[in-house]
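Budget justification aside, the reviewers requested a transparent look at the raw inputs and outputs of the sequence design task funded under Objective 1. We therefore reproduce one unedited record. The lines immediately below are the structure tokens for a 417-residue chain.
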């Protein structure tokens, strides 16, 4: 099936065409409504992606660009992908001020199983990341298990398993706001999300979590990110203002808005990074086993959540910003709290393997069992069993990594010998 204008494209994406291969001719396709790509559809544009000497994408060749342009302020994902969908050779231009994401790979019901591939795609999303009642907005790619009506019916999509593969693509964000090129979260219990990224240029940050309550309970959920040979880059005109996060990773947390919730517990996040580059952010990697934003009665504790972080061959380059304390290669903790007197909960763990990593030199990196807004919190309010654990010992860490200053203290290593 071949389409050459917006009317034909919308007509092709009907349920009856599930499983079809749809070829989208070169051109600009104006969209006034979000589109759903049905199960097993291959949506292929005629864009020919170009690559630099490192094999990373730089954009489409002249005369081949196939662009879906959102022209109406209609909420939702520009494209929502069904199970077995492949999108290739297409550019997506989102509309400034619109509430939604460029691509959504999201659960449709409890127990849903969904896998989608995004290959050689260019996404331009000019919007700042925000949280709205339906979930995230302003993101390039959102991979989610959903809670479609927080606190009401229909219930969260418990037991759903959602996966996406993103390869050789270029994702660009708002250069001055909060970047959200990838948002991968569970808003449902006993659920999972997984994302594999290879050879992409991600211009902006990624935000990932094993489980977040909104306000229904999220427990026993899993998230996995596998990242290889990607470039994560901040293109802000001034890399020091505003402050921007490269990787924002936490296993379990409440919401950053004051919703009444109880505990968030037994969620897990695994991140495996091989030969990635993280460049230009004021904080390259922020990771914690659990995070608590508010005290009771607004929010209960965050308990028994974990993150396994593996960084192998990663290169981190943060700006010096005149030696400002706001700049860090790492902020790693068993648990994070937003207030210095807030107890996070118990049993949250960040386990890290850091090998062959090159850092930026002297920066204000922080390592703690429990980290607050200004540094490690007092032992009296740390809770019980919240731990940062780094594989090996300090001597091995110094041998196998370069320019990470300061290094973690010896108390955080699994072996203190």
């Amino acid at each position: 099936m071949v389409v050459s204008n917006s009317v034909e494209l919308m007509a092709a994406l009907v349920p009856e065409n599930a499983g079809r291969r749809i070829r989208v001719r070169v051109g600009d396709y104006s969209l006034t409504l979000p589109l759903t790509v049905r199960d097993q559809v291959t949506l292929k544009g005629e864009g020919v992606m170009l690559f630099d000497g490192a094999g990373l994408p730089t954009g489409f060749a002249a005369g081949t660009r196939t662009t879906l342009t959102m022209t109406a302020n209609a909420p939702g994902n520009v494209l929502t992908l069904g199970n077995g969908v492949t999108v290739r050779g297409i550019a997506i231009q989102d509309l400034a001020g619109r509430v939604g994401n460029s691509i959504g790979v999201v659960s449709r019901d409890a127990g849903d199983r969904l896998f989608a591939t995004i290959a050689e795609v260019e996404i331009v999303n000019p919007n700042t990341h925000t949280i709205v009642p339906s979930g995230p907005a302003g993101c390039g790619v959102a991979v989610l298990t959903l809670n479609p009506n927080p606190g009401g019916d229909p219930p969260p999509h418990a037991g759903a398993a959602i996966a996406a593969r993103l390869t050789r693509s270029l994702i660009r964000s708002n250069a001055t706001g909060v970047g959200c090129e990838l948002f991968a979260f569970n808003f449902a219990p006993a659920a999972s999300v997984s994302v594999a990224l290879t050879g992409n240029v991600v211009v902006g940050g990624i935000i990932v979590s094993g489980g977040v309550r909104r306000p229904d309970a999220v427990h026993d959920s899993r998230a996995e990110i596998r990242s290889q040979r990607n470039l994560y880059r901040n293109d802000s005109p001034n890399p020091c203002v505003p402050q921007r996060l490269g990787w924002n990773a936490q296993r379990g947390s409440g919401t950053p808005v004051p919703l009444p919730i109880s505990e968030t517990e037994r969620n897990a996040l695994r991140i495996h990074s091989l030969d990635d580059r993280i460049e230009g952010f004021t904080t390259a990697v922020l990771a914690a086993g659990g995070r608590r934003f508010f005290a009771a009665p607004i929010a209960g504790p965050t308990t028994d959540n974990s993150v396994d972080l593996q960084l192998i061959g990663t290169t981190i380059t943060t700006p010096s910003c005149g030696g400002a304390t706001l700049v860090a290669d790492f902020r790693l903790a068993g648990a994070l709290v937003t207030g210095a007197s807030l107890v996070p909960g118990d049993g949250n763990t960040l386990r890290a393997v850091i090998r062959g990593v090159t850092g930026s030199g002297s920066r204000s990196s922080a390592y703690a069992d429990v980290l607050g807004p200004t540094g490690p919190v007092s032992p009296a309010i740390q809770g019980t069993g919240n731990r940062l654990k780094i594989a090996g010992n300090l001597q091995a860490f110094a041998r196998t990594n370069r320019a990470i200053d300061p290094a973690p203290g010896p108390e955080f290593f699994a072996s203190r010998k």
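Residues 2-412 form one domain. Residues 59 and 319 are 26 Å apart (CA to CA). Computational costs for records of this kind are itemized in the attached budget.
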